[in-house]
Write a structure and sequence with these properties.
About 2% of the residues have low confidence. The longest helix has 35 residues. A hairpin with a 6-residue loop joins strand 18 and strand 19. Strands 4-3-5-2-6-7-1-8 form an eight-stranded mixed sheet, with helices on both faces. The chain starts with 6 loop residues before the first helix and ends in a 5-residue tail after the last helix. The chain has 936 residues and is α/β, with parallel strands linked by helices. 49% of the residues lie in helices and 12% in strands.
């Protein structure tokens, strides 16, 4: 090919190759034994050119290559690179990867409970650690050149998402930001915001999956393709699935058959055949089927921890064995090495032997309730191909590097904390993104199990939609407010918050409304011109007309309300045996009251009627009908014309009884002519306000205009459009400066509580600045009021647990057990302080529903924290807590994290025991299963 080029062209090509060889990207590419994809090259080139990048690509597509190139650039330039992840497990995994590539001396790790080589040029950390560094003005930020934010789409997270935005906003301008995200539908919008707050940012979006994904439905013994094979981008749903769903929907129900709807023999035969083909296969059956089809390893997503554990047991009982003897021995060797530090008595409590049996057979569960060490072993064995079937909750989909050949979804519904809801297209994409291992599999497979009521069209919609919008969950907090004011002052802090992605999105949504307001204003100008009258101010005349109409309408409503009240009062006076005249409606005419329809139990043997719209009398009409009337049948008050005795033998269901009593009614009162209800004088006739308005209208110059009604029509249109425009403007005002307005309310409350004085942060405020967490202000107030003084380390651990713990399911039946004595009194005082703060938040309009404010402390973990910090054994603590080991460890680590903050925030001058006891409480908690490090 080069022979065809001219000497000049060959020289230019040689120069280009030489230039490419001289780039950092060229030396970086040599470190990998595979070629880079176009989107990876494009992102790396943008980074080398000094730009920030946002890379949005599917799970498993190799986004992290771009983050690793930032690490490579930092080391080449002699700068630092921080690699941030949303969860500790992902930080640990990334630390291991980078340490293996660049050497343990150049890579460090910082998470809430681990610190390894923190002064290294490359440090992997959770995003919260970097946020805390920024607020503290840490020296570690000196010479920081690059920050990689892995899984940046986490900023949509309702509870923790704000941290990502805080970091992006507060990083120094000199830092190059690398944002790695799952495929989101508004990457360009997010990129525009990054461009605004971070400077030149290149947005690289890749929809291409390196391993193609095939969608299937498993029904009975057969696996069906979801889509029909065909050309073109629009795929058709497999007609076999549509037919099966239609036949299942038309299958007669048990109730239908009970009603005696006989089925033809042919229908029964067809149903039997259909049933033999369609059923939801059991879990062991699914794994067996996938194994036979060569589709293992597989991850089966089940949206319940207990169901994940049950699935493993079901597979063991079914005798499934996915590993040979050699693999079993290798599994045992790895597991024993990784769990060697755990004492034998704890292994028994943790269900180690049952867990090991599953692993040896190649089957395991993976969920947040497991011990972190156990989860990491499962991840390692799965990646090595020694575990081939994992039953997991959706938390596994969040970034952990555990790709599989197949992903199975048992159901398309999950519990979202409040109700069972359909999974979204974004969640479906995230879950099925695990299918297909790059460099190993030619294709990935997503398998959904057939369930009763299954809709192939609904699944096709989930599989074919790439709607996963990134929505900000940013909200100011008390800790954020004092940290911002301390660093930037109130005015600059307000401006910084206005640059958040939350405000950017709110402002963008205002654009369309603003355009509508602009159009409306142009329309108003035209209407104003059309209603102009040469005799005077028609706007003023129209206002008088509206005022008159509104007053007349108001009086008419008042009159109608009064009439209804009078009619209801008259109905309430009726008694059984009263003969009345029903004035209007279908049953107008003579009637005998059988039951007045009051909620007063029984009357003359007839059950009273519980009513909501006034009395509803039961009557017998002169035409022998027994009917319950409503207040609408009595627009005017009704009076008893006569009295009649109702025989005790009267049965309203008996036609003969009705006929006899109706005949007696006609004989007794048929000759009575009811008085006609006289209409009273209309309230408007005597209203002074109306009289004055009518006089003003007649006296107005425009009243005599020949085109008055034409002008009035234009004035009415003007008024309606003006009202609509004002409503739109209120919507704009509600969405503009929302973050800053919330910040202002927080600042006012903190000023009231003496945490802030103008731009000055008081001593109390400086203490609050060191406390991060959902209940930051409550923790600060407890320190301020000395609530925790004199508590033992174990008692302090119990109290601090109330600041972090949140029960998965609220249980009001039994009050949780708490330590007695000082700890119990301190917990009670914490709840009282929360009540005071809650009242203050209501006064300052700080709304918990919007994600701002202090929730009530939860004392559900206090006893477990107290027992563990007191040195009790794992068996006893877990048995009394009725909590999985993984949850127990996670809550302990969160308590340890907050205790560390309290130790730093409490006075250390000897006047307080809290700081010393907080450190002792950390030592008491950080033992046994809680202390097993996942690094090193």
């Amino acid at each position: 090919m080069t022979e065809d080029l001219s000497p000049a062209e060959r020289y230019a090509a040689a120069r280009q190759r030489a230039a490419e060889q001289a780039t950092a990207l060229a030396s970086f590419r040599e470190m990998y034994d595979f070629g880079l994809d176009p989107f990876q090259i494009e992102a790396c080139q943008a980074l080398e050119a000094g730009k920030g990048v946002l890379v949005a690509a599917p799970t498993g597509s190799g986004k992290t290559i771009v983050g690793e190139f930032a690490v490579h650039l930092a080391l080449m330039e002699g700068k630092k690179c921080f690699y941030t992840t949303p969860i500790k497990a992902l930080s640990n995994q990334k630390y291991q990867d980078l340490a293996k590539r660049y050497g343990a001396d150049k890579v460090g790790l910082l998470t809430g409970d681990n610190s390894v080589n923190s002064d290294a040029p490359v440090v992997v950390m959770t995003t919260e650690v970097l946020r805390n560094m920024l607020y503290a003005g840490s020296q570690a930020l000196v010479n920081l050149g690059y920050v990689v934010m892995d899984e940046v789409h986490y900023l949509s997270d309702r509870f923790r998402g704000a941290v990502w935005e805080e970091v992006i906003i507060h990083l120094q301008e000199s830092v190059t930001l690398v944002s790695l995200s799952a495929t989101v539908s508004n990457a360009e919008e997010f990129g525009d915001w990054l461009d605004t707050v971070r400077g030149d940012t290149e947005v690289i979006v890749s929809e291409h999956r390196p391993v193609p994904l095939f969608q299937h439905v498993l029904a009975g013994r057969r696996m069906y393709d979801l889509f029909e094979e065909g050309e073109g981008s629009k795929k058709a749903v497999n007609p076999d699935l549509t037919r099966m769903a239609r036949m299942e929907a038309s299958r007669p129900s048990y109730q239908d058959r009970r009603r005696g709807r006989a089925m033809r023999e042919a229908d029964r035969e067809r149903e039997r055949r259909q049933r033999s083909r369609i059923w939801t296969p059991g879990r062991p059956e699914v794994i067996d089927r996938l194994d036979a089809a060569g589709l293992l390893p597989a991850i089966t997503f089940i949206f319940s921890r207990a169901a994940c554990e049950a699935a493993v047991q079901q597979c063991l009982f079914a005798g499934l064995r996915l590993n040979g003897e050699e693999a079993r021995a290798e599994v045992r060797e790895i597991v024993e090495a990784r769990t060697a530090a755990i004492p034998d008595e704890d292994l028994h409590v943790l269900g180690y032997y049952e867990w090991l049996e599953g692993l040896e057979r190649g089957i395991a569960a993976h969920h947040a309730g497991m011990l972190p060490t156990f989860k990491e072993v499962v991840e390692e064995l799965f990646v090595r191909g020694l575990v081939k079937a994992v039953f997991a909750t959706e938390t596994l989909a969040l970034g952990i590097n555990m790709p599989a050949r197949s992903v199975v979804l048992e159901k398309l519904v999950k519990w979202n904390g409040e109700q069972h809801a359909d999974i979204t297209p974004g969640e479906y994409t995230q879950l099925t993104g695990r299918a297909g291992r790059r460099g190993i599999d030619v294709e990935g497979h997503a398998v959904v199990l057939w369930q009763r009521g299954f809709s192939p069209e609904h699944l096709a919609g989930l599989a074919g939609t790439r709607t996963y919008p990134l929505k900000s969950s940013f909200k100011p907090s008390y800790n954020m407010a004092v940290n911002l004011v301390e660093q930037f002052g109130r005015h600059r802090s307000r401006e910084l918050l206005e640059t958040s992605f939350a405000q950017f999105q709110a402002d963008k949504s205002v654009v369309g409304i603003s355009r509508q307001v602009q159009k409306n204003e142009e329309g108003l100008e035209g209407y104003k011109e059309s209603m102009t009258c040469h005799l005077g101010d028609f706007d003023e005349y129209a206002r008088l007309r509206r005022e008159l109409k509104d007053r007349e309408t108001e009086l008419a409503k008042q009159g109608a309300v009064q009439r209804r009240a009078q009619a209801a009062a008259a109905l309430e006076k009726l008694k059984p045996g009263d003969v009345i005249h029903v004035p209007t409606g279908k049953f107008a005419g003579l009637a005998l009251v059988l039951d007045p329809g009051l909620p007063a139990g029984r009357s003359n043997g007839h059950r009273g009627f519980e009513h909501h719209d006034g009395p509803r009398p039961l009557v017998l009409t002169a035409e022998r009908q027994v009917k319950r009337l409503a207040s609408i049948d009595f627009p005017v008050p009704v009076e008893a014309l006569e009295r009649m005795r109702i025989p005790k033998s009267f049965n309203p269901r008996s036609p003969q009884s009705r006929r006899d009593l109706a005949s007696a009614l006609r004989t007794k009162a048929g000759h009575i002519v009811p008085d006609r209800h006289k209409k009273g004088r209309a309230p408007a006739a005597d209203d002074r306000h109306i009289a004055r308005l009518r006089a003003e209208l007649r006296a107005h110059p425009c009243h005599g205009c020949s085109e008055r009604e034409d002008h009035a029509r234009w004035a009415e249109r003007y008024h309606r459009l003006h009202r609509d425009t004002a409503s739109l403007e209120r919507r704009i005002e509600g969405r503009t400066n929302t973050i800053a307005r919330t910040f202002d309310r927080i600042v006012k409350l903190l000023t009231e509580m003496d945490y802030l004085r103008g731009d000055e942060v008081t001593e109390h405020g400086k203490r609050l600045a060191r406390l991060y967490g959902e209940l930051d202000l409550l923790a600060s107030e407890c320190l301020r009021d000395g609530v925790w003084e004199g508590l033992s380390p174990a008692e302090l651990a119990a109290c601090v647990s109330a600041l972090v713990f949140e029960a998965r399911v609220s249980d009001d039946a039994l009050a949780p057990k708490v330590p007695s004595g000082k700890a119990k009194a301190a917990l009670g005082e914490m709840v009282r302080i929360w009540g005071r703060l809650d009242a203050l938040e209501e006064e300052f309009r700080i709304n918990q529903a919007e994600g701002v404010g202090q929730r009530e402390p939860d004392i559900g973990f206090a006893w477990a924290a107290y027992q563990w910090a007191s040195g009790k054994g794992l068996d006893e603590v877990l048995r009394e807590a009725e909590m999985p080991a993984g949850d127990f460890v996670r809550w302990c680590k969160q308590v340890i994290d907050v205790l560390g903050q309290i130790a730093a925030a409490a006075p250390n001058d000897g006047s307080s025991t809290v700081a010393r006891n907080a450190r002792k409480a950390v030592d008491g908690l950080l033992r046994g299963v809680v202390a097993y490090s996942s690094v090193g």
